[in-house]
Amino acid sequence: MAQPFTPRVDGNRLYARGAADMKGGLAGLVVAAEALVESGALVRPVLTLVADEEDASIGSEAVIAALGDFALRPVTCLIAEPTGPELARSLRGFGVVRVRFAGRAAHSSQAELGRNAVTHLGRLLHRVDQRATDMRAVGGDLMVTVVRGGSSPFVIPDAAECIVELRTSPDGHGAEALDEVTALLDAGWDARAERVAARDGWRLDRNGPAADLAARLGAAVSTGTAFDAPYWMEAPLWQAVCPTLICGPSGGGLHAADEWVDLDQVRAFPAALVSVLGDWVPDAD
């Protein structure tokens, strides 16, 4: 994509960086909120447009912490991540663990005088692969995504490190990653593991305002609640505040050079929201 931040329309697709993930959804929320306010609907939409979902979620964390300052008590939270156009039923959590290995340097011609930190890292890679088979059987996963070690040829590495990622089932907890990885370490490796990040999985409530709104919104866009996201989104953070659901327009090429969003979905999404929320009274159900 020669100009990733200059939108380009080709047929029913709008190409641009972030078009599907998730500027298309944000545009739909803005349009729907404006229409609901202008129509005098009973529902009071509150837009929270935040950044950093791909890292530490400092945007949502800051908004959630500030809700009390604005006397806001949300009944339901809708996150317009690209589900295209199904509603999300669940998502997986994750945990990230850094493992550092200490060795002893020596000339590689006398390897017996050293302790090879990279060798120990390699043995962990094998154990992670073995454990991953069991994790996948229950809806999770385990993998090493970053490795570093050694400084030059002819020197036994005295240090190495790797990043291990855990993907949990929707009912799992990201904090379990540290215990999972620590259990794979051998006492003779001189290895230390530390948790870098952790987020829990999530499921859509079976009852209550989010479940009711999901059913109504699914009917309005002629889909069901059937999308089980293999990745994480911020629903668990907002679920701690109020019942939460996820639905938004999608397309293709997310995080890639040729990202695009389906314009039919972008148009249908706010129209469905206005139709459903125009007379929605959650306490009446």
From TrEMBL:
Which InterPro entries does the entry mention? Answer: Bact_exopeptidase_dim_dom, Peptidase_M20, Peptidase_M20_dimer, Peptidase_M20A
| Residue ranges of every copy of the Peptidase M20 dimerisation domain listed in the record | 90-187
* Residues spanning the signal sequence: none
Which molecular function terms from Gene Ontology are attached? hydrolase activity; metal ion binding
UniProt-listed Pfam families: M20_dimer, Peptidase_M20
- What keywords is this UniProt entry annotated with? Hydrolase, Metal-binding
Give the protein name, as stated in the record. M20 family peptidase
